[in-house]
Each structure stands twice: as structure tokens, then as C-alpha cells.
Design a protein that fits this description.
Number of strands: 0
Order of helices and strands: HHHHH
Shape: globular
Helix content: 55-70%
Strand content: under 5%
């Protein structure tokens, strides 16, 4: 039974890859971060990225931003080797970097 469940899960993930497109590349403007991050987090869950090893999740976040600027910003954080492999730490650092002077509006409050 575990083999069947594993195969179904793998099929689901392959199917999701075909159905879901990643968000557009990030503009690197502070005011665009909240919207891009919300869309990326939704894509991450639907595509199954959130189930990958932490290091791969970090790589995907940085790569999805679409520019070497993301790599430069990540280096600027000066994280330890262990911290730089932890998705929650890295994503929080990006959040702090882009939202330091603004607040994210929650679209659900407008619905």
C-alpha cells in the first residue's frame, strides 16, 4: 500500500508541475515584494516545493526571483552555512529586507 501511495504522490506532483506556472520574475522593488511573495508561496505549496529538502527550497526561492541580485542580497545577509540552508530563515531575511519600510496588505481583508 505504501508503494501505491508514493506513486500517487509522485504522479500528483508531476501533474502539478504541468498545471501551475511559477510567478513572474521579481522586480526587486520593495513595494512589489508582498504581492510577489504571496504568489510565490502559493506556487510553492501547490507545486510541492514545500516538501523538498530545505536547501532545495532556498535554491528555488532565490532562483525564482529571476536575477543575480537575489544572490547578492542573500550574500549580504551574512548567514551561517546552516542558516543559509534553512528556508524559513532565508525567506524571513528576504521579507525583512524588502518590507523594512512598508507593511504588506492582506488581500483577504479586501475580499
Amino acid at each position: 500500500m505504501a508503494t501505491t501511495e508514493g506513486a500517487a504522490s509522485a504522479t500528483r506532483k508531476i501533474t502539478n508541475h504541468a498545471m501551475v506556472s511559477p510567478p513572474d520574475k521579481f522586480s526587486f522593488r520593495n513595494e512589489d515584494w508582498c504581492g510577489w511573495r504571496r504568489r510565490y508561496e502559493r506556487f510553492r505549496r501547490v507545486d510541492g516545493i514545500d516538501e523538498l529538502p530545505q536547501t532545495e527550497q532556498v535554491d528555488h526561492l532565490v532562483y525564482s526571483q529571476g536575477d543575480v541580485i537575489a544572490e547578492d542580497i542573500l550574500d549580504w545577509f551574512r548567514l551561517s552555512d546552516d542558516q543559509s540552508k534553512d528556508y524559513s530563515i532565508v525567506s524571513s531575511k528576504f521579507e525583512q529586507h524588502f518590507v523594512s519600510k512598508q507593511r504588506c496588505l492582506r488581500t483577504s481583508s479586501f475580499l
